[in-house]
């Protein structure tokens, strides 16, 4: 279980915080708005009213003890930059920051962000993939080169095991999980068979994933 601090808990940050808790992680939610913190308090491990630019407050909350920081205050660029700097100086291993523009993103990377996200842009890309490829149920961009997709089992894969499909050799992709009904297999092996209504969670290079879209 990892420890996350989410600074800025608007629609995006609040959603991230709640989801991380549902996935079994400890989350400290920080926002300067009292109403936002009150709303989140029942959904996260801890919720504290504080500014992302208040280094003393963040240090008193033990920011250095967290594994990951999510900086979600993109509309206030100064706060975004300051919070990222504070997290970096505290020695947090991984910092994800939300950006408002490409220039904002460049600054965040320069000062130590490990990943910068554009929620609206990434959602648009996800929707586009879902529209273009009928069998793609979800699309998550990991980097400029790699993504994870969920897809309905293609007809040619049904009733075959992973060894016979040899997806790594044929397409350059790896199956992370197989979901069938209410069950999910997070450690699929070569003998596991792909059934008609299964959903496969697959990771690979974008150019390789394009090969299986629409199968």
Q: Which CATH top level class of the largest domain fits? A: Alpha Beta
How do the strands of the widest beta sheet line up side by side?
A: 3-2-1-4-5-6
Helix segment tally: 9
At the fourth level of CATH, the homologous superfamily of the largest domain is NAD(P)-binding Rossmann-like Domain
- Could you tell me the mean pLDDT? 89
| Main beta-sheet annotation | 6 strands, parallel
Order of helices and strands: EHEHEHEHEHEHEEEHHEEEEH
Helix content: 25-40%
How much of the sequence is in beta strands?
A: 25-35%
Low-pLDDT segments: none
Report on this structure:
By secondary structure, the chain is an alpha/beta fold. It has two domains: 3-117, NAD(P)-binding Rossmann-like Domain (Rossmann fold); 121-212, Regulator of K+ conductance, C-terminal domain (Alpha-Beta Plaits), CATH 3.30.70.1450. The protein is 36% helix and 29% strand. It has helices spanning 11-22, 34-40, 55-60, 77-89, 102-110, 119-132, 162-165, 167-171, 206-212; strands spanning 3-7, 26-31, 46-49, 68-71, 94-98, 115-117, 136-141, 146-152, 160-161, 173-180, 183-185, 193-194, 199-205. A six-stranded parallel sheet has the order 3-2-1-4-5-6, with helices on both faces. Strands 7-8-13-10-11 form a five-stranded antiparallel sheet. A two-stranded antiparallel ribbon has the order 9-12. The radius of gyration is 20 Å and the shape is elongated. It starts with a strand and ends with a helix. The model has no long low-confidence stretch (mean pLDDT 89).
């Amino acid at each position: 279980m990892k420890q996350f601090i989410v600074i800025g808990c608007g629609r995006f940050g609040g959603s991230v915080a709640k989801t991380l808790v549902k996935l079994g992680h400890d989350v400290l939610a920080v926002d300067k708005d009292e109403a936002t913190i009150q709303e989140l308090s029942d959904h996260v491990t801890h919720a504290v009213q504080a500014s992302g630019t208040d280094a003393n407050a963040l240090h008193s909350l033990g920011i250095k003890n967290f594994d990951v920081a999510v900086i979600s205050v993109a509309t206030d660029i100064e706060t975004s930059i300051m919070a990222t700097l504070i997290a970096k100086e505290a020695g947090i291993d991984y910092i994800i920051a939300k950006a408002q523009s490409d220039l904002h993103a460049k600054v965040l990377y320069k000062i130590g962000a490990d990943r910068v996200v554009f929620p609206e842009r990434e959602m648009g890309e996800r929707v586009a993939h879902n529209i273009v490829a009928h069998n793609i149920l979800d699309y998550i961009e990991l980097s400029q080169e790699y993504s994870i997709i969920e897809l309905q089992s293609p007809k040619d894969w049904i009733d075959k095991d992973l060894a016979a499909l040899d997806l790594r050799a044929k397409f350059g992709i790896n199956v992370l999980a197989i979901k069938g009904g209410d069950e999910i297999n997070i450690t699929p092996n070569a003998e596991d068979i792909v059934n008609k209504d299964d959903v496969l969670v697959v990771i690979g290079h974008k150019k390789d994933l394009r090969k299986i879209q629409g199968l």
